Amino acid sequence: MKTFVLDTNVVLHDPMAMFSFAGSRVVLPLPVIEELDTFKRSNDERGRSARLIARKLDELRKKGKLSNWVPLENGGHLRVEMQVDGGLPKTFSMETKDNEILSCAQYLRKLGENVIFITKDINLRIKAEALGLEAQDYEKEKIDIEELYRGWEEIPVPATDIDRFYKEKKLVLQGREFVNNQFIILKDQGGGSQSALARLDPKVHALTPLLRADAAPWGVKPLNIEQRFAIELLFNKDIQLVSLVGVAGSGKTLLALAAAMHQTLEEKHYRRILVGRPVVAVGHDIGYLPGTKEEKLTNWMGAIYDNLSYLLERPKGSLETTDMDIQMLIEEGTIEIEAVTYLRGRSLPNLFIVIDDAQNLTPHEVKTIISRAGQGAKIVLTGDPYQIDNYYLDAASNGLTNLVERFKGQSLFGHVTFTKSERSPLAALASDLL
């Protein structure tokens, strides 16, 4: 039987991780419990995870002694290991919790256990391998980023099918399987110039024409096909959850904010706009910055303010101008800019919610945010899986890519992957070369 030794960052990433190894032994070294104790009073996601783990362990304690093997419902067993003297080489300092946890795994291996050390810390995996321990990342929620659902596909069809699509306003392609709200670019397989843009409408289970793809929300016109697909999703009231993934400068955040302002300020479909962003940079929380919460957030929300300034200061449409400013909309309550840390516990009905930089969120944090949506709310998550600042996440394990794969095919979900940068020729070149 395998014995999985879990690092602290694994259970903080997924509080239910200790129940993910069916039929196996799961060990939590005592230093993990001690580290969780330091997080339990925090108001961020780590603190909530630490408290949840403590409650789960307390429930298991009622089934048996945690110093022995407590049976789990998945056929496995769990224990808290007190012994951390595994006889590490002298070059390993025992003054760090990481090395104590590593020493515990080494101790169990010396007892003859088939130990697999699970940690999201790359350096700790390297140290474990140097000791001869088998070390792995926690991969329960990993997605193959190369196979990630794009949200659109180009299909060659006979020209007669394209003609029929334009005439009947719908098309069913026999022998082809698409998922709900997937976009299809119909191309003449004979090499002609005919083409059409379609979406699989879950109501009729057929390809239908785009209705709002040519719209210019708040004066922002789509510059490529991918942006037209995004606008179609952003204006569809039946699609309550949208994810926009792609390279920097592809227009993800700008289109989301433009659609939010158009539907909130002009069409009055939503009460107000909520823009959120994870506070992730060089490891410091906003509490390290001076000023009130609003003043602190200004330093972290620069990308949001840049996009809002662009939308409010440029001429809207052809001749019309606007004298609105961001501060006025914030003071009126029309736009709320918030760190995602403070969204837990809130109920958000009839809001247009934009979560920027969602690739820096864990799957658990994304679940928390989406579960805040009330009646009539729409949530848009944007991000680039290849630009991650969270040390324990990567392109395959972050909450945004996990969301795309899990929600694929749901009738109230739509997704578009952007491949073209439209910010500037320099930004496009940087995306390609760097």
How would you explain this protein's 3D organization?
With 434 residues, the protein is an alpha/beta fold. Helix 12 (363-370) links the parallel strand 14 (351-355) and strand 15 (378-383). It has helices spanning 8-13, 30-39, 45-61, 97-110, 122-130, 159-168, 225-234, 252-266, 293-300, 302-313, 326-332, 363-370, 399-407, 425-433; strands at residues 2-6, 25-29, 70-71, 77-81, 114-118, 134-136, 152-157, 183-188, 195-201, 206-209, 241-246, 272-277, 335-339, 351-355, 378-383, 413-418. 33% of the residues lie in helices and 19% in strands. The protein folds into two domains: 2-136, 3-Layer(aba) Sandwich (Rossmann fold); 218-433, Rossmann fold (3-Layer(aba) Sandwich). The radius of gyration is 25 Å and the shape is globular. The protein has a six-stranded mixed beta sheet. It has a six-stranded parallel beta sheet with strand order 13-12-14-15-11-16, with helices on both faces. The chain has a four-stranded mixed beta sheet with strand order 7-8-9-10.
Instruction: Give the strand order, joined by hyphens, for the main sheet.
Output: 3-4-2-1-5-6
* Proportion of residues in extended strands: 15-25%
Whole-number mean pLDDT: 88
Helix content: 25-40%
- In the CATH hierarchy, the architecture of the largest domain is 3-Layer(aba) Sandwich
CATH superfamily of the largest domain: P-loop containing nucleotide triphosphate hydrolases
Number of E-state strands = 16
For the report, how would you describe the main beta sheet?
A: 6 strands, mixed
Number of helices: 14
Low-confidence stretches are 317-321
How are helices and strands ordered from N to C?
EHEHHEEHEHEEHEEEHEHEHHHEEHEHEH
Q: Give the tally of structural domains.
A: 2
- Class from helix and strand fractions: alpha/beta
Radius of gyration: 25 Å
* Intertermini distance: 45 Å
